[in-house]
Amino acid sequence: MGLFKKKSVTLMLEQSKKKQLEKTLGAFDLTLLGIGAVIGTGVLVLTGLVAARDAGPAVILSFMLAAIVCGFAALCYAEFASTIPASGSVYTYAYATIGEFAAHTMGWTLLSVYVLTTSAVANGWSAYFNNFLGGFGLAIPKEFVTIPSQGGTVNLPAICITLAITWLLSRGTKESKKVNNFMVLVKLVVIGLFIVVGAFYVKPENWTPFMPYGLEGVIAGGAAVFFAFLGFDALSTSAEEVKNPQRDLPIGIISSLVICTIIYVAVCLVMTGMVPYTELNVAEAMAYVLHSVGQDAVAGVIAVGAIIGIMAVIFAYVYASTRILFAMSRDGLLPAMFSKTNASGVPTFSTWITGAGSAFIAGFVDLKELANLANIGALLTFAVIGLAVILFRKSHPDLQRGFRVPFVPVLPIISVACCVFLMVNLPGTTWLYFSVWVLLGVIVYFGYSRKHSVLQENNEIPLKKAN
Questions:
Q1: Which residues are CB-neighbours of 330 under 8 A, at least 6 positions away?
Q2: How does the protein's chain sit in the membrane according to the entry (predicted)?
């Protein structure tokens, strides 16, 4: 059946060798890109919200739970990225192992994950930016930083920053990666400052009760903060722009996740130790706890760092979503305009359509809703990549791999089970909205993609083995 027609690995490798996208990224750039994508709204915004609403001081356990699940998925990503260095992430991997319909569904899901994450991050950036301006008596009127459902008109700063980052990306990867690396380094310095200063104000009694909402709260918190770890997967969308993908991609994926997990745990310990967890139900939690202990100057520095650092997250996700559009368009599953590049090798139309869509959503939709929708999509893609690794080992056992997942199929099966478990713990409304998006994707596939698929037109026979 055409729905299960697979794209040959040989063709994917040939496409990745074509220099349609300029190869400018190394292991260091990838690690910073991963940290830039992961460390952002999760540590600067969600840590406080989840501690207050779901887990209390046990939010560190929520982060550890999410990190373990992400770690399993990261190993699967590393194997695929080092074996098939082609743009598209899970979309590409599903195309090689499960078939075209599954690949289209994964690509469609990834688009929602990246666009919604961009919007949610821009939403969080707006809170820090307005708080920073407020320190100078220049706060933006509430109606222009608040979405309609919360009594405002539009979150204007969120729209503006998304469009500004989109413009930067449209200039080219080589130029924009320098700005991204700077933003990530600033963010790491600021987080380090928070940990060092905040540690002097930690009161162990604030960690009691440690688990006020019980194990159920920790698990619910794990499902919520899963959003905070999204980003390392975005690295696999950059495969065709990496100088040595077989070596550098596994390094970038795994190292960025490990570094980010350590940072999250340290920040959560300090934050919940500085003030009672019940006070952390604010969007700019790091700045808030520093103000509460009289460290206004440091809080100001943190706010500036957050403003700069969160922009790196927006950068990473707009970048990733454009590469998904590029890959799907190149395969005929979306119109050709999405894969056209300019003289600098940038898919300009995809970049601007993604940025504009993300900006619109950021201006009008609640951050918590955006985070949950991004979570369910990401969990689904992580489950699929675990399944894909098992299938790929069977279909291409002799293919050279730069990295191999240990204990296959046991570890990928555990990864799939963990993802499904966390998905079940997400709200019913999230499932409803996500189902509507998937249904829309199915309509697009049967209405356009299947008819224009390059694979279907060429009637390509998938290879059982590629060397």
A1: 15, 339, 454
A2: Multi-pass membrane protein
The C-alpha R_g of the chain, in whole angstroms, comes to 21
Q: 145 - beta bridge partners? A: 155
Number of domains within the chain: 1
Domain holding 94: CATH number? Answer: 1.20.1740.10
Average pLDDT rounded to a whole number, residues 440-457: 90
What distance, in Å, lies between the first and last C-alpha atoms of the chain?
Answer: 26
| Angle at alpha carbon of residue 101, lines to 100 and 105, rounded to 5° | 115
Contact between residue 453 and residue 100 where contact means Cβ atoms under 8 Å apart: yes
Q: Dihedrals φ, ψ of 186, to 5°?
A: -60, -45
Q: 160 is in which domain, residue-wise? A: 30-452
The answer to whether the beta carbons of residues 197 and 298 sit under 8 Å apart is: yes
Per residue in 368-394, pLDDT (tens digit) is 677 778 889 988 999 999 999 999 999
Q: Is residue 222 part of a domain?
A: yes
Nearest of 355, 303, 299, 360 to residue 325 by alpha carbon? 355
* Inside any domain, residue 15: no
**Residue pLDDT, tens place only, 57-93:** 898 998 888 888 888 888 888 888 888 877 677 898 8
Closest CA to 373 of 115, 161, 168: 115
Report the predicted TM-score, pTM, of the whole model to 2 decimal places.
0.80
**Mapping DSSP to helix (H, G, I), strand (E, B) and coil, where does residue 155 land?**
strand
d(CA 232, CA 425): 23
Burial of residue 252 (number of CB atoms within 10 Å: 0-12, 13-18, 19+):
buried
Residue 343 lies in a domain: yes
